[in-house]
Amino acid sequence: MQRQALLERLVNAGVMTAGEAVRAADAGRRPAAQPSRRSFDSAQVSLLTSSWTTVTKPIDADIRNSLRRLRARSRHEAQNNDYVRRFLGLVKTNVVGPNGIVMQPRIIDPAGNPDPVAGDAILEAWKEWGRKGTPEVTGRLSWKMIQRQFIETLARDGEVLIRKYRKWSGNRFRFALQFLDPEVLDVNLNRELQNGNVVRMGVEMNALRRPVAYHVAISKPSAHGDDYVFNGRRYERIPATEIIHEYLPEWVWQTRGVPWVTAGLLRLNMLGGYEEAELVASRASAAKFAVYEKVDDEAPTMNPGAAADDEQAGTFIQDFDSGTVEISPEGYRLNLIDPQHPNSAYKDFVKTCLRGIASGLGVNYNSLANDLEGVNYNSLRKGALDERDVWTTLQDWMVEAFCRPVYEDWLDRVLMQGEITIAGKPLKLERRENYLRVLWQPRRWQWVDPLKELNAHKVALDQKLRSPQSIIREMGYDPQTVLEEWTEWQQQLDALGLTMASDGGDMMAAQENTNEQQQD
Questions:
Q1: In angstroms, rounded to a whole number, what is the distance separating the alpha carbons of residues 97 and 91?
Q2: For residue 70, is it left (φ>0), alpha (ψ between -120 and 50) or beta?
Q3: Reduced to 3 DSSP states, what percent helix, strand and coil does the chain have, rounded to the nearest 5?
Q4: What is the pTM of this model?
Q5: 356 Cβ neighbours under 8 A, 6+ residues apart
Q6: 16 backbone dihedrals φ, ψ, rounded to 5°
Q7: Within its chain, how far is the Cα of 421 from the centroid?
Q8: Please, what's the b/e burial string for 463-475 (b: 16 or more CB within 10 A of its CB; e: otherwise)?
Q9: Which of 10, 301, 373, 389 has the fewest CB atoms within 10 Å, i.e. is most exposed?
């Protein structure tokens, strides 16, 4: 009413027209507009999300604050947790394998034609350098062993730090590698330099965040080797050209790597504690024990000879032998204590936890848990293919990040020193680009059902969908080597007047028919 009276006075005074007064009165009667609720549900702040972070910060801030603890816990689990040791074994076995990632030369001459002579000379020198005692400064590792330690360190510690010695006097190639513990890159070394560079967690970078040097703590191992001892936190600045610092980059502006088991560390630790508790409880359950309960106040006191302040006063101590039955003393009742462990939910609980852990590690649950219960050909093949995609991706990354750069540095040294000769003449340094034409063949795997896979390859060849070379590489072999071996074998057969027993395709067809008849 007061609003209406005010509007009437304003109209009478000529401040507003009658139409403006009507519109103003209608606006006063309308309900206030409700705020819009349109938004992302995951961005809402409520009691349910009160513990969820709402602050964005660079990934290096989290890594700097957590890396040492994460690495310490990852190493602890690698020493004591069965599943982490299994995971590290899977990484070494599937990424590197028994033969390592093999270098296969594809050298061409200045005319663009294949140059097998130069290729064989380079390959032989590379194999000689890769023998145990040559490629690594301690003399304990071969090239294959270096690859395995590289990938295991990467998975366990999150990053690998290797120093390259280009004037090493320990071998004729004057080139060797040295593994450094990533801990010597101090996460607490962060400063701005006068030249405009910045040191972040021990890594010196320019304005484009390109590493230019590494500030490695000068470490003197203690006599017992039980701790890291830095002499007054002094650092050696090593140019980036002498260091291999690799990790799997997952974030933009990431400077250091974190252990691969980071996402599952907490669950792994809790699962280990749960299994230990169940193991102890199950052992107690298997032992079974009992106590005597006094049910008659007039019953005699047990162990009457004990002193009044003796802990055994008023108690009855008795050992039971296996397979014996004892009679309860008068006035006492025997109560059997029978813990029910492991409980019925133990198996499903452990399996559920391991499935989540396996997902975080990027491996198949059946492989991690060594559990093939309930699998069939299709499920096993599907799981194997998914997991092998992970391994082949890691193999491709390792070739680009480690194998190829090491080969290029090694090639530069041997070319400058003239260590590889053909007919008494060293290979020419100006042909370096041609000598870099090499392929890297990682390990491959046997199929779940090799016969079905071979038949599929045969159909693909018949339909011209694949080449023999691609199939041979997929099986982990070098097509050139296979062709040379077949040529040599055929020559030996011809020299002896022998022929192959039967055609391989006929053998596969016959075996397939046999399998179908057995199934019928």
A1: 9
A2: alpha
A3: 50, 15, 40
A4: 0.76
A5: 264, 267
A6: -140, 160
A7: 41
A8: eeeeeeeebbbeb
A9: 373
Secondary structure (DSSP) of 207-248: TT--EEEEEEEEE---TT--S--EEEEEEEEEEGGGEEEE--
Cα Rg, the chain, nearest whole Å = 37
Q: Going by DSSP bridges, is the β-strand pair 243-246/289-294 parallel, antiparallel, or unpaired?
A: unpaired
Angstrom distance (rounded) from CA 334 to CA 328: 6
For residue 483, give the H/E element and its range: helix 479-496
Give the CB-side neighbour count of residue 58, counting CA atoms within 13 A: 9
DSSP string, 163-188: EEETT-TTSTT--EEEEE-GGGB-TT
Distance CA 12, CA 295 (A): 103
Residue type present at position 495: A
Q: pLDDT by residue for the chain (520 residues), tens digit each?
A: 666 777 677 667 666 676 666 666 666 665 555 555 667 888 888 888 878 888 888 999 999 999 999 999 999 999 999 999 999 999 999 999 999 999 999 998 888 898 999 999 999 999 999 999 999 999 999 999 999 999 999 999 999 999 999 999 999 999 999 999 999 999 999 999 999 999 999 999 999 999 999 999 886 655 555 555 555 578 899 999 999 999 999 999 999 999 999 999 999 988 888 888 888 777 766 665 667 777 777 666 665 444 445 555 455 556 656 556 666 777 777 776 666 666 767 888 888 889 999 988 888 888 888 888 777 777 777 778 888 889 999 999 999 999 999 999 999 999 999 999 998 899 999 999 999 999 999 998 877 677 877 888 888 888 888 888 888 887 777 788 888 888 888 888 888 888 876 554 444 444 455 455 444 4
Residue with tokens 């310490």: 72
Dist. CA 14–CA 8, nearest whole Å? 10
Which sequence spans correspond to the domains of the chain? 289-337, 449-520
Tell me the C-alpha distance between 185 and 206, whole Å: 18
Closest CA to 216 of 163, 175, 176: 163
Paired strand residues for 294:
332
How many Å apart are CA 378 and CA 365, to the nearest integer? 15
